[in-house]
Each structure stands twice: as structure tokens, then as C-alpha cells.
Amino acid sequence: MKTDLEEIIDQVLIDEESLNKRIKKLANQVNEYYEDKNELVLVGILKGSIMFMAQLAKSIKINCTLEFMDVSSYEDGTESSGNVKIIKDLDTDISGKEVLIVEDIIDTGRTLDALRHSLIKRGANSVKIITLLDKPERRVIEIKPDWTGFKIPNEFVVGYGLDYQQKYRNLPFIGVLKREVYE
Ligand code: IMP
Ligand code: MG
């Protein structure tokens, strides 16, 4: 069955061309920043970051390895941060390495805050964050990404890796999900 876009998407927020252009610019900034380093470890957070990771990595000129982690933040209602449940861990030792966490979107900031601390504890030389999207209005934990693709309003978006109930990750643009779909 084909996806009927008109039934699920309110508006295309960022089209494919704008995404790719912006990601190229971000890659240039990353290249400049790590210019004098021998190696960079890109850590993509599954599954949302896959498209961004792939597009970004194509324009990275520094020697790099592509790693993935799958995490979820604990939501026990009392502790708001500091804990991250690792569902799939890194396959490599990152001690002494330059690590760049590649994320699809920062919302409350809980996941990234916990993850960053956990990677610093493992002895990474540096841990930076690059995110395709940022919803600053929704922040609960104060965390600032080092590089951001686009700041977006507080709307639920899908596509380019982002899902609603695991669907729509394959759409080549970022679109606002119709409220009827999830309300
Ligand atoms: P947080 O910053 O810990 O709240 O978690 C951010 C995660 O929530 C992201 O990595 C996404 O997986 C998910 N998320 C937040 N906002 C959206 C959205 O608008 N669309 C799809 N996923 C989202
Ligand atoms: Mg995610």
C-alpha cells in the first residue's frame, strides 16, 4: 500500500534540496573544526539519524569511522536525567578519540545529556553534538548542540529518518505530521 502523503502531512517544513544544502554546510564546519585531528568517530543515534548520518558523512573529509548506538532515556517520573538505557552499544573503544554524536532532533534534551555524560566517562578526548533539527521550546535539560541544521517550532515532524510509530522515516523531506494522525 502506498503512503497517501496528503492524509498524513500538513506541510513540508524542509524540502530535500534545502536539507542537503544545509548538511553540506554543516559538514564544512565540522571539517574545519577537526582539521588538525587524525581521526573522528561519528556516533549516529538509531534509528532517527540514519539519513542525516549518511548525507553528512559523504562530505566529511577527516578520516572517520561510522558507529551507531541505540538508546532510550529512562522515564521513571522522578529522575529527569542522568540515565540512559543502552539498547545497542558501540563496538569500539572510544578512549582518547574525538567523538561526534549525530542526532536527528533534540527535544527535551534528556537523551543527549545522559548519552554525552556516558561517552565522556568512557574517556573520549572530546564529545561534541551535531543535530539536524532542534526544538528549543521543548527543552527540559539545558543542552546546547555544537552544530544545528535547523531550529524548528514545536510541531511533531516526520521524514528524513524521523518516525511516527516507526513509519515515515523514508520520506525524503521533513514534514509536519497532521494532528488527526496522532490525536
Ligand atoms: P529528547 O531530546 O530526549 O526528548 O529525545 C529526542 C528524541 O525524541 C529524538 O531523538 C526523536 O527520536 C524523538 N522526537 C522528538 N521530537 C520528535 C518529532 O517531532 N518527530 C519524531 N521524533 C521526535
Ligand atoms: Mg532519536
TrEMBL record:
BP GO terms, sorted: GMP salvage; guanine salvage; hypoxanthine metabolic process; IMP salvage; purine ribonucleoside salvage
Coiled coil found in the keyword field: yes
Keywords for the protein's UniProt record, in alphabetical order: Coiled coil, Cytoplasm, Glycosyltransferase, Magnesium, Metal-binding, Nucleotide-binding, Purine salvage, Transferase
Domain Phosphoribosyltransferase: 19-165
Gene3D superfamilies named in the record: 3.40.50.2020
GO molecular function: guanine phosphoribosyltransferase activity; hypoxanthine phosphoribosyltransferase activity; magnesium ion binding; nucleotide binding
A GO term from the CC aspect: cytosol
Localisation: Cytoplasm
Record has ATP-binding as a keyword: no
Coiled coil: 9-36
Pfam families given in the database record: Pribosyltran (PF00156)
Sequence similarity: Belongs to the purine/pyrimidine phosphoribosyltransferase family.
Protein role: Purine salvage pathway enzyme that catalyzes the transfer of the ribosyl-5-phosphate group from 5-phospho-alpha-D-ribose 1-diphosphate (PRPP) to the N9 position of the 6-oxopurines hypoxanthine and guanine to form the corresponding ribonucleotides IMP (inosine 5'-monophosphate) and GMP (guanosine 5'-monophosphate), with the release of PPi.
Protein name per its UniProtKB record: Hypoxanthine phosphoribosyltransferase
Native species: Anaerococcus hydrogenalis ACS-025-V-Sch4
Lineage: Bacteria, Bacillati, Bacillota, Tissierellia, Tissierellales
Gene label: hpt
